[in-house]
Amino acid sequence: MEERKVRHLAIIMDGNGRWAKKRGRPRSFGHKRGIENIKKVSRMVKAKGIEILSLFAFSTENWKRPQQEVNFLMREFKNYLRREKKALIKERTHLNIMGSRRELDRELRDLIEEIDKATRQNSIFTLNLAFNYGGRREIVEAARNICRDCLQGKLKVRDIDEALFKEHLYSNFIPDVDLMIRTSGEERISNFLLWRLAYAELYFTPVYWPDFSQVHLDKALENYYRRQRRFGGV
Which terminal residue of the chain, N or C, has fewer Cβ atoms less than 10 Å from its own Cβ? Predict the structure, then answer.
């Protein structure tokens, strides 16, 4: 049974805009409710004994959205970091923001560094938010860094294996994903944690992210525990 235990759960938080549209509200209203649900779901996951929760918050492709929506998301994310800092420290949760910081403004970069430093020693639970994250970019940047080390004589080509490659990923500090959930009814992984999802079990639910609750989490976990994970074996 040990190999079936969920240690690392990943969720693609999808459907905020459609959730708001069904209620005759603007997409920003859905995003606000979606951000509020992060805290609720994190506590539910932690109570289940799961050690790591990775959430897809903002992808490298999301910059293509209308500028007004992007600005709103950036502002709300800053507010989330400011608002949750004390609670995360009290609940011994490490909040890690995973992704490229090049496109982010100085204020947001400073907030990310501040909250990472403040919660880094927390070991009970890790909340890993993928922000300005893309799975392909993660792999390309890892390859680029390894090539640079080879050219500088720090590495030899024969040194490169999966273990070394993983050390150069954004996600170098977390294990592979056991279960990935996507809300909203869409059935694709959308460039999320490509390396870490290699042998993950996938679960898709039609529920929009703002409505995702304890009932839906329990259903996903029950489905997971009915499956057999062979990792290429028989």
Answer: C
Catalytic-labelled residue, pool 14, 16, 37, 96: 14
112 CB burial (10 A radius; 0-12, 13-18, 19+): buried
The verdict on pTM exceeding 0.90 is: yes
Strand order of the β-sheet with 201-204 is 93-98, 125-133, 52-59, 8-12, 179-182, 201-204
CATH domain 2-133+175-225 topology: Undecaprenyl pyrophosphate synthetase (3.40.1180)
| Confidence check: pLDDT of 26 > 70 | yes
Residues 6+ apart with CB under 8 A from 88: 94, 95, 115, 118, 119, 122, 127
Q: How far is CA 25 from the centre of its chain?
A: 26
Which residue in 62, 145, 191, 223 is the catalytic one?
62
The secondary structure of residue 175, as a DSSP letter, is P
Give the tens place of pLDDT for each residue, 126-158.
999 999 999 999 999 999 999 999 999 999 999
Is residue 233's pLDDT more than 80? no
C-alpha distance from residue 64 to each of 6, 61, 95 (Å): 34, 6, 26
For residues 29 and 180, what is the distance between their CA atoms, to the nearest angstrom? 26
Q: List pLDDT tens digits, range 79-108.
A: 999 999 999 999 999 999 999 999 999 999
**Residue 145 designated active-site:** no
Nearest to 192 by CA among 74, 108, 104, 98: 98
Intra-chain end-to-end CA distance of the chain, in Å? 16
Do 56 and 192 form a contact (C-beta atoms < 8 A)?
yes
Q: Is 62 a catalytic residue?
A: yes
